[in-house]
Amino acid sequence: MHNWLFSLFLLVLSISLPAQSVSSLEKKLKSTKDDKLRMELFYQLGNAYLGKDNKKASENAGKAQSLAATYKNPSLGARAAYVGGSAHYHRKAYGAATSRYKQCITFAKSAKDVEYGLKCYAKLETIEKDKKKNYRAAYNYAAEAKKFLQSMLGSSSGGSTSTTRPSSGVSSQEVKELNRKIDALEQEKVSLLRDIRELEAGRDQWMSDQDKLTEKQRKLLREERAQAEKTISEKELELASVEERREAAEARVKRKEKQLSKLSDEDKVKTMMLQEAELEIQAAELKATQEANKNNIYKLLSAFGLAIGILFYLRFRANRKAKRALEEKNKEVEAERQRSDELLLNILPANIAQELKNKGKAEAQKYFNSTVLFSDFKNFTRLSEKLTPEQLVEELDYCFKGFDFIISQYETIEKIKTIGDAYMCAAGLTAREIVPNDIVKAALEMQEFLEDYKKEKMAKGEPYFEARIGIHTGPVVAGVVGVNKFAYDIWGDTVNIASRMEQNCEVGMVNISESTYRQVKYNFNCIPRGRIAAKNKGEIEMYYVRSAN
After folding, report:
1. Which end of the chain has less neighbouring CB within 10 Å, N or C?
2. Residue 164: inside a domain, yes or no?
3. Is 422 found in the same domain as 318?
4. Whole-angstrom Cα distance, residue 76 to residue 85?
5. Residue 198 in domain
6. Beta carbons of 450 and 466 less than 8 angstroms apart
7. Which value, to the nearest 10 degrees, does the dihedral of the CA atoms of residues 118, 119, 125, 131 take?
């Protein structure tokens, strides 16, 4: 129990403290003898060196990982192994990276850390697919990731009451136009998926045709070989016949020699001369026949070899052309798949989009320490009367794009939705406990962004927007609702209280609840406001956030 509390303290400390320099971390490492604190410092050093000196990043992350295994801290072990794997990945040492990512998965399973487990599976899939071109192994890692996610989250369930805000200042015609654009995106996504299926079917048909062509080439090669073997056999028979005639001639010579032995010396000489002349004629004829047969065989073998060479060359060209065509088809399929995934990721968080693709639905998840941010513009209805619909939408688009950019700098924050002039986002929608430092920083940056924009508008004599921002921390339920035009949303009393924080906030300020204040009070300069009455919630303790410490 003590080790668990100490590990939790280190995790909160690493998230809540601002980033420290490498030199200060190394100085602290030299001065401390506490192995558990050294474990956290090794991890922070590995993270700091990542992308700058990947060798040192790997060494420090490995030391943190070793200490995490010794002190049974699987959560930090998973993060350290992930940093070590990323360092090896940057160095293109993909074998070592694969080993670290697998160790990260082992730690993540022990810690029930869904986020780092899925990150490591994604990295392993990328290494096999993009670096090693081993698509089967990449598919297997994707399947393992799915099983891992199901084992980690399969038992989650729950429900709550949703809270919505009415939109104001936007005409029904503009709402219809936005809905029409969303429908067009949905239709384009369906079309892209259909095109991908057609391309895959075309690729399968092409591969079938290639197999048939290869079979025809093999059949033609077998026929050519059989014909050549038949011709060679015929020539061998001819050679055998010539050999038989030579043996018969030698037999005749032996008979003549016996006859000569009975003749006189003079007759023997004449007979021998005649026989020698006859033998010379026969030998010449035999040699001519053998040479002709050899030449015919050489010509036949040369023709056969040439035919085989031509067939192999044609097959090589066909295979090369087929390979290029298949690569082009695969590139087209991959491009269309990526485009479809990008469209889906514009609507849903990455883990929810992956779950929808794998299972066709997404289970609702309950998170016990999530932080919800609401922002709303002051006198939005009055200002909208001074602007044309086009100008109004343009102003809202500019402000909300600025908000989107700010929260995109923090990986712990997820945008939920916009409702009229209200903007809603949340942090802590993961299995890991998240301290709400990032979302409070983002709120202060939003107000700074609007203040700068206000100064530009005032200099031009144009109307401007001012916002109230409220933040509350507590449990929420998150999930996907609907079948067509589905949307990712969160529900719970935490959402209601965050809305009350915004309603009871002054323009240009960030108003937080007591539950949020308790987690961030050491990192921000906060001013207590006392207990303030909130609609349907009674009196709530509230605080203004002035700046970061």
Report:
1. N
2. no
3. no
4. 14
5. no
6. yes
7. 180
Q: Does 517 lie in the same domain as 375? A: yes
Measure the CA–CA gap between 418 and 430, rounded to whole angstroms.
21
- Which of these ranges, 200-204, 216-220, 476-480, has the smallest mean pLDDT? 200-204
Question: How does pLDDT run across 219-276, given as a tens digit for each residue?
Answer: 877 887 788 778 777 777 777 777 777 777 778 777 777 766 665 556 656 666 776 7
**Which residues contact residue 223 at a Cβ distance below 8 angstroms, ignoring those fewer than 6 apart?**
none
Rounded distance, CA 81 to CA 127, Å?
Answer: 16
The Cα–Cα gap between 75 and 98 comes to: 19
pLDDT digits (tens, 9 = 90+) for 336-370: 777 766 666 666 777 777 777 777 677 889 999 99
What is the C-alpha to C-alpha distance for residues 174 and 178, in angstroms, rounded to an integer? Answer: 6
What single letter denotes the amino acid at residue 512? I
Q: Which two tokens stand for residue 398?
A: 């500019």
Yes or no: say if 163 and 536 are a contact pair by the CB < 8 Å rule.
Answer: no
Cα 399 from Cα 386, distance rounded (Å): 17
210 vs 204: CA distance, rounded Å? 10
Dump pLDDT digits (tens) for 152-163.
765 444 444 333
**CATH label of the domain that carries residue 376:** 3.30.70.1230
Contact 111, 140 (CB under 8 A): no
The count of residues in the chain is 549
DSSP 91-124: TT-HHHHHHHHHHHHHHHHHHT-HHHHHHHHHHH
In whole angstroms, what is the distance from residue 370 CA to residue 414 CA? 11
Contact assessment for residue 503 and residue 534, using Cβ atoms and an 8 Å cutoff: yes
In degrees rounded to 5, what are phi and psi of residue 325? -65, -40
C-alpha–C-alpha distance, residues 490 and 347, integer Å: 14
Closest CA to 144 of 115, 124, 116: 124
Q: Output the DSSP codes for 204-263.
A: HHHHHHHHHHHHHHHHHHHHHHHHHHHHHHHHHHHHHHHHHHHHHHHHHHHHHHHHHTTS
Instruction: Indicate which CATH number applies to the domain containing 133.
Output: 1.25.40.10
Residues 308 and 430 in one domain: no
Domain boundary among the residues 307, 342, 377 is at 342
